[in-house]
Design brief:
With 423 residues, this protein is an alpha/beta fold. It has two domains: 211 residues, Vaccinia Virus protein VP39 (Rossmann fold, 3-Layer(aba) Sandwich); 127 residues, NAD(P)-binding Rossmann-like Domain (Rossmann fold). It is built from 14 helices and 17 strands. The strands form three sheets. Strands 6-5-4-7-8-11-10 form a seven-stranded mixed sheet. Helix 5 packs parallel to helix 6. The chain is globular, with a radius of gyration of 21 Å.
């Protein structure tokens, strides 16, 4: 289902409150991307919710129009554990080392992470002797964090929690919010809370996939109900200034989650040349106007048609397909494209908490990646294509035995085998 109508949406903008939102993509009704299904519920129909995306011409924020209660999204059925990705672990360690060294953090400092998950990042501060506080409402992940020495407040972050922590004398030298700002429906409350909690000379670093990569590389599977917003530097700058904060610097990681930006935000205005260049580039490329987004729906429809045609041809040739990555982006892709057991046999994932469950909507079984060697399907559809290099290294034996990888975006492509030394 596509939408390119520049018409006002029913809801106000999540950032500036404008009522002039312009929808440009409609993915139909999809199940919650992280709501994995237990086998005993395989014959039941999963709840589905509309998934439509719009652009705000006032503050440039890209956002979905549907709200699902946060507790339904991130507590009972949320099984994402950051520590299962080697790439995320290395990225996090490097980030922490950079902050500790550049800001002289030590035993008298406090590093806070919002959406601290299983302690994957804060553990590196602990190793450097820096006191930490994690904030995450997901009980299983919080338990895992506590087990490795990361104290965790099991609540959603906002102005109330920030004020309580400040009243207790806990103000942060560093706040880290990786891949969480997109998840919060109350953006202004979230940013206001960070302003309350951060010291006047502190720094906030926020990471999220870059909306420019989403649009230009057709990364539509990054869109799901857990992601309320998709950020440009312009949208972040306008949002944080509203709360007495400043976007001072920008870093870009092109191979992380399909293209990720790290925004350095502080109470003091010290805008770097790099930040100014990003803001200028967004204006120059048209990202501040609806026309930049208008044709995205047609591009997404093309991907769906090509991918389904490819999988059907593989099946017609008598070949078998498995998929890699029981992540939220994979749920969006297979449900929008209608990829079920007729086209893919099963999904594999390293996360042991997901193994034995079923993918939302289509109910494909989730297995241990060891199944690929035991079963040797002819093709492997990379639902977690953002970890292509990591998966290719992990599955070298499968590839050497003749397995072929399919990357679905920016257009469906069967990768050519690489020499062993290049993997």
């Amino acid at each position: 289902m596509l939408s390119a109508r520049p018409a006002a949406a029913d809801r106000p903008c999540r950032s500036c409150g404008s009522t002039r939102l312009q929808p440009f993509l409609d993915l139909g009704e999809t199940p919650l991307a992280d709501a994995l299904v237990r086998p005993e519920h395989a014959n039941e129909t999963d709840p589905r919710f509309p998934l439509e995306v719009a652009f705000c011409p006032e503050c440039t924020l890209v956002q979905i129009l549907e709200d699902v209660p946060p507790a339904q999204l991130f507590v009972d059925n949320y099984l994402y554990f950051s520590s299962f990705s080697d790439a995320v672990q290395e990225h996090s360690r490097s980030h922490v080392d950079g902050l500790v060294d550049s800001r002289g953090l030590g035993a008298d400092s406090l590093a806070v992470e919002i959406a601290s998950n299983d302690g994957y990042l804060l553990r590196h501060f602990v190793a450097r002797g820096v006191p930490v506080l994690g904030i995450d409402p997901a009980p299983t992940q919080a338990d895992a964090a506590e087990a490795i020495g990361v104290p965790t407040v099991r609540e959603f972050f906002g102005t109330e929690l920030a004020a309580r922590l400040r009243a207790e004398g806990r103000r942060a030298d560093v706040i880290i919010a990786n891949n969480v700002m997109a998840h919060v429906p109350d953006l202004n409350g979230f940013v206001a809370g960070m302003r309350t909690l951060i010291k006047d000379d502190g720094v906030i670093t926020v990471e999220n996939p870059y909306v420019r990569d989403l649009i230009e590389h057709r990364e539509f599977d990054t869109i799901y109900h857990e992601h309320h917003c998709y950020f440009s530097c312009t949208a972040v700058d306008r949002l944080v200034r509203r709360h007495g904060l400043y976007l001072n610097h920008v870093e870009y990681f092109p191979r992380l989650h399909g293209g990720t930006l790290r925004w350095h935000i502080s109470p003091r205005e010290e805008v770097s040349d790099t930040a100014r260049e990003y803001l200028a580039a967004e204006a120059a490329t048209g990202m501040l106007a609806f026309d930049y987004y208008r044709d995205f729906g047609a591009a997404v429809e093309s991907i769906r048609a090509e991918l389904v045609a490819l999988l059907r041809q593989i099946r017609a040739d008598g070949k078998r397909v498995a998929a890699y990555g029981a992540a939220a982006k994979g749920s969006t892709l297979i449900n929008f494209a209608g990829i079920g057991p007729d086209l893919v046999d099963y999904v594999v994932d390293r996360n042991v908490h997901k193994q034995g469950l079923l993918m939302p909507g289509v109910h494909l079984p989730i297995r241990d990646p060891a199944a690929l060697i035991e079963d040797q399907p002819d093709y492997l559809l990379l639902l977690a294509w953002n970890f292509l290099d990591e998966i290719r290294a992990q599955q070298a034996s499968y590839i050497e035995a003749g397995g072929r990888l399919i990357v679905p975006v920016p257009r469906p492509t069967v990768l050519e085998p690489q020499p062993a030394e290049a993997v």
